[in-house]
Amino acid sequence: MGLKAVLVWCIWLGLIQYSVGGRVRHYRFDVEYMMRKPDCLEHVVMGINGQFPGPTIRAEVGDTLHIALTNKLFTEGTVIHWHGIRQVGTPWADGTAAISQCAINPGETFHYRFIVERPGTYFYHGHHGMQRSAGLYGSLIVDLPKGQKEAFHYDGEFNLLLSDFWHTSSHEQEVGLSSIPLKWIGEPQSLLINGRGQFNCSLAAKFINTTLPECQFKGGEECAPQILHVEPNKTYRIRVASTTSLAALNLAISNHKLVVVEADGNYVTPFVIDDMDIYSGETYSVLLRTDQDPKKNYWLSIGVRGRKPNTTQGLTILNYKTISASVFPTSPPPLTPLWNDFERSKAFTKKIIAKMGTPQPPKRSDRTIFLLNTQNRVDGFTKWSINNVSLTLPPTPYLGSIKFKLNDAFDQTPPPVTFPQDYDIFNPPVNPNSTIGNGVYKFNLNEVVDVILQNANQLSGNGSEIHPWHLHGHDFWVLGYGEGKFKQGDEKKFNLTHAPLRNTAVIFPYGWTALRFKADNPGVWAFHCHIEPHLHMGMGVIFAEGVHKVGKIPREALTCGLTGKKLVENGH
Q1: CATH architecture assignment, domain 367-567
Q2: Which residues contact 142 (CB under 8 A, 6 or more apart)?
Q3: Coil, helix or strand for 5?
Q4: The pTM is what?
Q5: Residue 242: its pLDDT value, please?
Q6: Which CATH superfamily does the domain covering 156-351 fall into?
Q7: How far is it, in rounded angstroms, from Cα 302 to Cα 196?
Q8: What's any one GO cellular component for it (predicted)?
């Protein structure tokens, strides 16, 4: 049967459909727990269609994705967030439990339908409880339409999805974080590259100081590394996404330089690096030129940054096809930079500027909100708070409750838009007590909003952590970073000409980060620290804009809480 006949047959069966401006691509996702050996030891992981990580979604700009997600978890709800996809016109498909939709109950199927309108490197992950920590994630790649070419040339492509992995279950982690005293999750046992790592052996045992034996793979093991096979003197695009629950990572390839060309689905002014930091929630594309000795193989390494590491590097091999992939590199893996060399981290981050032609930020904002990140206590429980409010999500999703004016669904008092100016960010809070809340920051449609993220010391006085903040439904311009407490006059330092567009940005220890975005996407959107336990402990806020402009919300997104009750009362 010829290709044309196969396509006609598939269209007739409904496996492929075409819409104006692009194809409709159908996926069926069954979310379930499975026994797997991602780091060579058997553990329960969360996967999709029997795969861990979940299947890679690939589409072209203008395509509609239709993902029928069935919950096969038996006893808990689930959702999937499509990280970096703005969901213009489809806010109910953002995949955030209690925000954009009800959690999908066991046995139920939810239909996500949305258009991917921009090319880039994205991913998807669970957004209910700590299911991302359990392994619910996969890659999502959006290509340019056929016939269009990227501004940079490459001969081949690789996709790297980076994650961290614990031997304690996500449920045990949740209980520990919600206990008195707090039982912290600790550092991950392994770092995974495309769902593969090694806990009880080392690929580089001959080269590093370790008590672990050298890994002896025969082929086909679940934890055996996925090797990157390359031809000499070619250029490869490596797409990198970090879905880590905790770890900030540094990626390097022995003896090779990389050129950064994309960040969070936006093109950047290309720059050359020896290694790169990547925080949870970030994505990049880098170009690799295979210009080294083709009679050798080389290490690709990831290691922990930003936290004192207690996890061995994640490793795989860059194999020049001129020799066997079984030949180990002849030198040790790249050394991960010191975990607390924050100046190096800042230097990398500040190199990221917009590519010429990227929309520039509006010259002025209509309003500014200051968000102070602190660790606090609520009734003896350790929490993270924003302006002294720790986020606790309501039973009724915000999108439905605001759309239908169900004012009893959440606190109608807006959260604080700033914090006391005499707050000492360098010392533990004088009053450690905080409150829980579920209020919403509401913006007028098309309002230009500045957000100043302010970091501070922890409850224990043990220092200030890096926090990667992710905004749903939008990209923002990163206007700048600063040391200490943001003060009047700092806005004069804002970058208004080459500010990069991102959806995730970090605040460094004892520092501030300034962001600007336009509230032009009707819906309700989470803005939160992308470190999974921090969000679980309340480190997030809710933004809403133009909800009255939102079209008909699918009934299956509203079947819980007060919106579910409203459906019953209306005879649905």
Answers
A1: Sandwich (2.60)
A2: 59, 60, 61, 63, 116, 118, 119, 120, 122, 265
A3: helix
A4: 0.95
A5: 98
A6: Cupredoxins -  blue copper proteins (2.60.40.420)
A7: 12
A8: plasmodesma
